[in-house]
Amino acid sequence: MRNLFVTALVFLLAAFVEAPGGLTKEERESAIKYFTETGQALADEISSLTENQLKWKPSDSVWSVANNVEHLAISEKIIFDWAMSTVKTPADPSKRSQLKNTDEQMKSILVDRSFRVKTQESFQPSGQFGSVSAAMVEFKKRRASNMEYIRTTEDDLRNHYAETPFGLADSYQVLLFIAGHTMRHTLQIRELKGHADFPKN
């Protein structure tokens, strides 16, 4: 009888233990779709550009298409590493009430080009990949690795956090930051292509 009581008590206590913040199937699928769509949008946007078009810029203070692509290849790793660093901090479910944005709001903010953030030196393009095609190879390799992490991770991505330029975000939202950032710069590339002086070939 005592053993039966102990067993029942264990199950009762377990019911009150907060479940880990592992991703749901829907969260995984949503993130994978977002990463896939934004990566493809970038590839499509630059696919037919000539070397002259890739390197053109309207002024010295504005990035070229090539600069944007290199920046994205660099960012794909740096932002992912940032997300992973948040997972190493103690989980704190009580902070969820402090999140500033929903997942969808975070995506919208990231592609709002009226909101400008100064790029840190570590993200600055410097020609390190040698060519746009090489930068895209690196981008795609890093993107595939990041997507595999999202598909398979059991990390608690909802109860770890980071301060972002847009307010407190959880680790899952920091990962969404990667794909949203890709779309942000794809839109910047579209702006360049729409410039009146953009080369015809």
From TrEMBL:
Identify the InterPro entries for this entry: DinB-like, DinB/YfiT-like
Could you list this entry's UniProt keywords, alphabetically sorted: Signal
- The segment(s) forming the DinB-like domain are 35-189
Tell me the leader sequence span: 1-19
Q: What is this protein called?
A: DinB-like domain-containing protein
Q: Which Gene3D superfamilies match?
A: dinb family like domain (1.20.120.450)
The organism named in the record is Flavihumibacter stibioxidans
